[in-house]
Design brief:
Blueprint: H1 2-32, E1 40-49, E2 52-61, E3 66-68, E4 81-84, E5 91-99, E6 103-107, E7 112-118, E8 120-129, E9 136-146, E10 150-160, E11 172-174, E12 181-185, H2 197-200, H3 225-240, H4 248-259, H5 263-292, H6 294-301, H7 304-321, H8 331-341, H9 345-359, H10 361-376, H11 382-403, H12 416-444, H13 451-469, H14 486-502, E13 549-551, E14 557-559, H15 562-572, E15 576-581, H16 586-594, H17 602-607, E16 610-615, E17 628-629, E18 635-636, H18 639-651, E19 658-662, E20 675-676, H19 681-693
Parallel strand pairs: 14-16, 15-16
Antiparallel strand pairs: 1-2, 1-11, 2-8, 3-7, 3-9, 4-9, 5-8, 6-7, 9-10, 10-12, 13-14, 15-19, 17-18, 19-20
Helix pairs in contact: 3-10, 3-11, 4-5, 4-11, 5-9, 5-11, 7-10, 7-12, 8-9, 10-11, 12-13, 13-14
Length: 696
């Protein structure tokens, strides 16, 4: 009896033990797949619109993630791509797909304004059905979604058409199942000129913004409204020091103090005058935003023709600032404003402010125009904030000197120095003009204004400005000078230092201080600098690189096929560093530019590991014999599909950048963190050293 009871107890314990092990196995397996991210959830529906139908796609995007718009410009992350699979003979598209609310910000890695969705996405496409027997509309979405890492996903929709599509029909809503979404790993946020020539035509067009600082793993940042205000405020002070505005300060303040019956009233009038100046420019910002709309301004900021036109306008303004001619509004406008100002009272003061704006246009116009365009690229109320900052700086001296008229005696007298300020602004306008020309060249991929040419132009412009400040060059409206002031000397020295800082950029220096202005390093005649000096740093066999290898970032030898890299690693007995990356991966480029380039990291990547960079967005088709279908039913057709499947099946993640150090059998060498992504230099270096030290 005791034996039987013991046997039953043991059997019960075995069953309980197996159950516990089964649960542990289940949770372990679930955890191993926890990194397969699906941050976007889609729904779709169809609605009637007259004789046509409207396809409506809505998405909920998880917090802190963003998905790129189809209107993201060339040279940035991957844009949303919409494919209508069964369109031919069944229906016609009416216009282009429309999008709901998006955001736009500047990406300093790729030098483009990125457009993206946050929180939710809304896309509509109107169609005209020409086949009365059509049952469904089949649509594929290919999109990119990013946070610290990026994912390239595709979503397939099959939207049922109601048998009789009458006006009174209720919209048919289709909730799409999540398992219909095929998630493909892709680290996006980057620029296409880096793509090999054979792959360039296959890489998708890029997309839009993400805000981030150097330490924050995300996309390149949009300027905040505070930064726009601050930049505009400084620009207002620059305009204040021009010959069109500065001489009017003592004259205008003296007018208020003399014409007012009391000092208190003079102060009130001057304050109202300043507020009127602010109101005029803020209204200008409102008008620009109202007429064009934030979305239109955003689109204009990346439009080829707009950039070309603004390049020409800035060249004209710069030429005027340098003294070739004067740009002025019609005199009749100023005369009418002056006549109204004579009326006195509040209305008269308001027209005095308007007269100031008109008279000073030849100096303030170029600055105001540039500010409006730059602010417009941020969308929303940014143009209004920009005009508020600019006009506040312009109006502040009139108010302060009216409150403290004794300060007028401390003002420097008008003279040749005012023209010097105007000429310096002309040089700056000239340099900025080539940024707009570069934008157009990047979008068209003409390679006329590549990085070396752009930097050479800036070296010439700021070199000439240095000579001007040192008195070696004089321009038409300059006064004769016997010597230069100490302030002008310091400004000349600062410009000289900046010019010298630009020169190494011709040889591949990153020029991080101005990374938002020149084309990216990949968009150049020689990504390794003039003369290919970056190549010399690579330790390779004198006879050449191994089969399948090429020179990658910073002259590091890199393989793009796993088998080729593995064979070479076995030959020289070194550990492998797998780099799962993407052509359109911003954070991948940031890691390469800011972490791989560090002097303590670069020698390790060159000498102690075999680097294998696998591009998950490589759209080159594999040979037919290498194409296959996974157990989950996914078709592996391109090289990118192959490396994506490798990454997901082996490392249970679909994000990039992803770094792994393995031995020659493919085993991970890091214990604490088997894989690593977008991290600081210190953490990356520590991880590298740990993995290499564990290699046997």
């Amino acid at each position: 009896m005791n034996f039987t009871q013991t046997l039953k107890d043991n059997q019960f314990k075995n069953v309980w033990t197996k159950t516990i092990l089964l649960f542990l196995f289940f949770f372990a397996f679930a955890n191993s797949n926890a990194q397969i991210l699906e941050p976007v959830k889609w729904t779709s529906k169809i609605e009637k619109k007259g004789n046509n139908a409207v396809l409506i796609f809505d998405a909920v995007i998880e917090k802190d993630w963003h998905m790129y718009s189809q209107f993201t410009p060339e040279g940035g992350p991957l844009a949303l791509e919409i494919t209508f699979k069964n369109q031919k003979g069944n229906y016609e598209l009416v216009g282009k797909a429309k999008e709901g609310k998006t955001k736009t910000s500047f990406n300093d890695v790729f030098g483009v304004d990125e457009t993206y969705f946050e929180g939710k996405a809304h896309v509509e496409q109107e169609i005209k059905i020409i086949n009365p027997n059509l049952k469904t509309v089949d649509v594929d979405f290919d999109f990119q979604v990013c946070k610290e890492v990026c994912i390239n996903s595709s979503k397939k929709f099959s939207i049922a058409i109601p048998p009789t599509f009458k006006v009174e029909d209720v919209p048919v809503v289709k909730e799409d199942k999540l398992d219909e979404t095929k998630t493909v790993g892709i680290a996006v946020d980057t620029v296409k000129p880096v793509v090999a020539e054979t792959a360039k035509s296959d890489v998708k067009k890029a997309d839009s913004e993400v805000t981030s600082k150097e330490e924050v793993p995300a996309q390149a940042p949009a300027r905040s409204l505070w930064s726009i205000f601050f930049i505009a405020f400084l620009s207002g002070f620059a305009a204040l020091l021009t010959p069109c505005v500065f001489p009017m300060i003592p004259m205008t303040v003296s007018f208020f103090t003399k014409q007012s019956k009391s000092r208190a009233k003079g102060i009130r009038n001057a304050i109202f005058y300043g507020l009127s100046i602010i109101a005029i420019y803020v209204i200008l910002g409102l008008i620009v935003t109202k007429i064009f709309g934030a979305d239109a301004l955003n689109a204009l900021s990346t439009d080829v023709w707009f950039n070309l036109i603004f390049f020409v306008i800035l060249i004209i303004f710069a030429t005027s600032f340098l003294g070739a001619f004067e740009i002025m509004l019609p005199n009749s406008w100023a005369n009418k404003a002056d006549q109204q100002a004579d009326r006195g009272g509040i209305i008269g003061i308001l027209f005095m402010a308007l007269a100031l704006a008109i008279v000073s246009f030849s100096c303030t116009g170029p600055i105001v125009g540039t500010l409006l365009v730059e602010a417009a690229s941020n969308g929303g109320i940014a143009p209004v904030v920009g005009m508020l900052g600019f006009s506040s700086a312009l109006a502040l001296p009139f108010m302060l000197f009216a409150m403290f008229p004794g300060w007028l005696n401390s003002l420097p007298k008008s003279g040749g120095w005012l023209n010097t300020v105007k000429v310096v602004l002309g040089f700056l306008e000239l340099a900025l003009a080539f940024k707009f020309l570069s934008n157009a060249d990047l979008v068209l991929q003409l390679h006329f204004l590549e990085r070396e040419v752009f930097i050479a132009i800036w070296i010439a412009i700021f070199g000439a400005l240095t000579l001007y400040l040192f008195g070696k060059i004089t321009l038409p409206h300059d006064s004769p000078i016997q010597h230069i002031s100490v302030g002008r000397l310091y400004l000349g020295l600062l410009t000289l230092v900046f010019t010298m800082y630009l020169i190494p950029g011709l040889w591949g220096a990153p020029l991080k201080l101005i990374s938002a202005f020149p084309p990216p390093p990949q968009y150049s005649e020689s990504p390794f600098g003039v003369g290919g000096s970056g190549h010399a740093a690579v330790n390779t066999d004198p006879k050449g690189l191994p089969a399948g290898a090429e020179l990658g970032p910073h002259g590091i030898m890199v393989f793009h096929d796993y088998e080729d890299g593995l064979a070479y690693a076995k030959e020289i007995n070194k550990p492998i560093m797998l780099d799962f990356t993407g052509y359109a991966c911003v954070n991948c480029r940031k890691m390469e530019n800011n972490v791989w380039s560090e002097p303590e990291v670069l020698p390790i990547l060159k000498n102690d590991v075999v680097l294998i960079s696998l591009y998950v967005d490589d759209k080159r088709e594999l040979p037919k014999e290498e194409q296959f279908t996974t157990a989950a039913g996914d078709k592996i057709i391109t090289a990118g599909d192959k490396w994506t499947d490798f990454m997901i099946s082996k490392y249970k993640t679909n994000t990039q950048p992803l770094y792994v150090i393995t031995d020659l059998e493919g085993n991970n060498l890091n214990n604490t963190k088997p894989t690593i992504s977008y991290v600081s230099t210190e953490e990356y270096l520590q991880w590298l050293k740990e993995g290499i030290s564990n290699f046997k």
